[in-house]
Amino acid sequence: MPPFLDRLRAGEPTLMLGVRGSRTTEVAHIAHSTGHHAILVDLEHSPMSTDVAAQLCSAAGALGMTALVRVPEREYGMIGRLLDGGAHGVVAPRIETAEEARLVARACRFPRAGSVPRPPRCHSSACVPCPPAS
C-alpha cells in the first residue's frame, strides 16, 4: 500500500475505483489500465461474497494497486479472512465509539496483539515450520 499512501501524503491526485457490482477480476485490470491506483471493494452495499472480494483484492495487488474492502457494519469476523485473501486494508463503517474502533483494530492484528488466528502448523515432513509469533 505504500505507493498509494505516498501519493495521498504528497497531495497528488489519487484514483480509487469503487467496486460493488462486478464479480470478475477483469474490473481490477480495467481499473489499472485506466490509471487507478486502488480499488475499494464494497461488501457493505452489495451481496458480494468474501471469496469474490478476496479474488478482486488479489488481482489488484498483483497489478501493483492497493485493495481496500469496506466490511459490512459490525461484521468484523471477516476482516482476517479478507486480509489473508489479499486486502491491504479495511474500511469499517459507522464507528461511533473508541471501543468500536478498538474492536476493528483488534480484528486486523495477529494473536497476542489481536484476534486474527495463525494458520495451523503443518505436520508433514515436507513443510517448513511456521515462525514463532512476535
Question: What's this, in brief?
Answer:
This protein is α/β, with parallel strands linked by helices and 134 residues long. The protein is 34% helix and 13% strand.
Helices and strands in order, then pairings?
Blueprint: H1 2-9, E1 16-19, H2 26-33, E2 38-42, H3 50-62, E3 66-70, H4 79-84, E4 89-91, H5 98-107
Parallel strand pairs: 1-2, 2-3, 3-4
Helix pairs in contact: 2-3
Could you tell me how far the N terminus lies from the C terminus, measured between alpha carbons in angstroms? 22 Å
The secondary-structure class comes to alpha/beta
How are the strands ordered across the major sheet?
A: 1-2-3-4
What is the rounded Rg? 16 Å
Instruction: Please trace the helix and strand order, writing H or E for each element.
Output: HEHEHEHEH
| Overall pLDDT confidence | 84
Shape: globular
Biggest β-sheet strands, sense, barrel: 4 strands, parallel
Describe this structure in words.
- By secondary structure, this protein is of the alpha/beta class.
- Helix content is 34%, strand content 13%.
- It is built from five helices and four strands.
- It has a four-stranded parallel sheet with strand order 1-2-3-4.
- α3 (50-62) links the parallel β2 (38-42) and β3 (66-70).
- α2 (26-33) runs parallel beside α3 (50-62).
- The longest helix is centred in the middle third of the chain and has 13 residues, at 50-62.
- The two termini are 22 Å apart.
- The relative contact order is 0.13.
- Mean pLDDT is 84; it is low at 120-131.
